[in-house]
Structures are given as C-alpha cells and as structure tokens.
Amino acid sequence: MIPRYQLPAYSPLSAGAIQRAIVHGFGAAMNGHASLAAALEREYSADQAILLGSGTAALRVAIRLAMRRVGHTAVALPAFTCFAVAAAAVGERARLRFYDLEPGTLAPDLESLERVLERGTRIAVITPQYGFPVDWDAIADLVARY
Fold first, then answer.
1. Predicted structure pTM score
2. With 4 labelled, which of 19, 36, 144, 145 sits at a CA distance of 20 to 30 A?
3. What gap in Å lies between CA 8 and CA 10, rounded to an integer?
4. Which domain holds residue 60?
5. 6 in the same domain as 37
C-alpha cells in the first residue's frame, strides 16, 4: 500500500477534481488553458475561471477587484503571514492595516480585526495559517456589521 500524506491545509478540491482538471487541461494540443478554464467553470459552476501563474498573482487580482468594488484602498492583513500576502497588497498600492492573531490557533483575533474595520477598512485578507481552521461563521458575522 502506498502511504498517503495529507497536506496541513484544507482545500475544497478533491484529488479527483485536480486530476480531472489536469487531464482536461493538458489535451493532445498541449495548450490546455481554455479547456482547463472551461473544466473548472463546469466543476464549480463558476461564471468565469481565470488562470494565473501564482497565488500571489491571484491575490493581487482579488485585492484589485475588491478595491474597485468598495472604493477604498485600505486592506486588513494578518500581522503574521507569508511575505507574498503583503507583497500582493503592496503590489496593488493598498494601504496596509494589520490585525492580530490568536496565539493558540493562529486565527484572526476578532477584537483586533474589528478595531481595523471600525477605522473604515472594508477589505480583509483572512488566511488559515499552516492549515489551522478559521471560524468562518464568526468572521462573516463580524464583517456583516460593517
């Protein structure tokens, strides 16, 4: 039996979904971008799938779109995170606002995040650090007040 290793992070993508995306994406022509995007759109009932070269590039696009939508350039980031997360926000010329994390869970400290939101920040990047789960319901309840 081949041992299986679970990455220390939650992903909504199953191994089968990833395999199907790869198979659909790399067809006979080896130019599978369009077919990979179409397969992802079908798999996740998405209006559009955008393929990017890295997670940092994807986060930059997400931050750019969020800034356009809310009309603000302040972005709340965890005070402890990967360099690339801050680099994505800096790359979009965002005004950085930092919130603390709970030391035991590395989840956002909700009081700290709320203080950032109280000062007018309307964009927050929430990252499950090292695969530790985040209480998304509590985050949603908090941001719904703003």
1. 0.73
2. 36
3. 7
4. 55-144
5. yes
Whether residue 66 sits in one domain with residue 16:
no
* Domain identity same for 61 and 124: yes
Residue bearing tokens 């995306």? 21
As given in the structure block, the two tokens for residue 114 are 């709320």
Place of tokens 């650090």: 129
Phi, psi of 123 (to 5 degrees): -125, 125
Task: Single out the residue of 65, 44, 71 nearest to residue 125, CA to CA.
Answer: 65
Q: How far apart are CA 38 and CA 34, in angstroms?
A: 6
- C-alpha dist (Å) from residue 112 to 15, 89, 126, 137: 36, 19, 13, 17
Neighbour order of strands in the sheet with 74-78: 95-99, 74-78, 123-124
User: Domain count of the chain?
Assistant: 2
Condensed to tens digits (0 to 9), the pLDDT of residues 104-145 reads 999 999 999 999 999 999 999 999 999 899 999 999 999 999
